[in-house]
Amino acid sequence: MSTDSLALLRKNAGQEIRALAQEHFKHDLHDSDRDALTSAASRISTHVTVGSALGLACGVFLAFRLRRTRVQMFNAFRANEKPTHVKFADGREEALPDITLFMRPFTLGDVATYTFFGFGGLFLGGETGLLTGSASAGRRITSDLESRERIETAFRRFRADVLRQQADELDKKKSVAEYLGL
Q1: d(CA 110, CA 60)
Q2: 4 CA to centre of own chain
Q3: Residues 118 and 66: beta-carbon distance below 8 Å
């Protein structure tokens, strides 16, 4: 499993692209634009962290509820009177096996329940936090029209530089295997 699967652990880009972004960040934007982008980034980070924590808590809570329900069902099944024999129309009787042992909740099932529900809650909570954080950050960035235009222009320039850099890298490499590092 890649660490990119969880929003909490995602990295944004490589060192070269990060250095290029820092150059555009320093030269193409005003101080207020940089503050707005920093604030937006911290909002996303906060939303992802809170969403991941809430998702993990909900996942563990649901796993606890499911486990408790399984134990209650097992206890109810064990306490009820069960048939021990089946009588057929021709008069013969067959004994029924006791399946109580197979219905019992196992520790391995509990571990799997807590693990899968916990990871599922972590994933859903983190992705929800990423969506809400992105929306909040977008509202923060687009609140000032002039700042928004400067940020969009700087982003277009940055993106063009990244594409130029990737095109140059593709021209230097001779095969797809070299480009992929194989």
Answers
A1: 11
A2: 8
A3: no
Nearest-10 crossing angle of helices 107-141, 145-172: 120
Q: How many CA atoms lie within 13 A of 129 on its CB side?
A: 26
Residue 99 pLDDT: 80
The DSSP H or E segment spanning 174 is none
CB distance 159 to 13 below 8 Å: no
Q: Report the alpha-carbon distance of residue 89 to residue 75 in Å, rounded.
A: 33
pTM of the model: 0.70
For residue 175, give the amino acid letter.
S
Is the Cβ–Cβ distance between 52 and 122 less than 8 Å? Answer: yes
Nearest to 61 by CA among 118, 3, 135, 137: 118
